[in-house]
Amino acid sequence: MLADFQKRGLVLAALLECPVEPGTNPNEYRAVLERHLPQAIARIRRSLKPKRVLVLSPELQPFLPQLTEPVLGCLVFSTPIFTSYAGENASDTQELAAFHAALPAHAAQGT
Prior knowledge:
Oligomer: single chain
């Protein structure tokens, strides 16, 4: 999957550099995301310097007001299509197909 991203000129980046332990309380998980958001925004702006950002994770939906074009310095799209982690269930194929479908839709918007 990563090779497919790279062939399209995309970079897949996680907000957290280290995974959260499985079974972590959802409130604790959200607090960890919130605590690391400023560093992630700085990394996006300074290191990655994207032309556009596509927010995939449903866990990031509450943070969309903080992930805006003025903050990130590029266009931001939200497509909460990934509802599970790879390998967790049979919907992975459908989610990947939805991601592929989202790419041309965003490109058609002139971005």
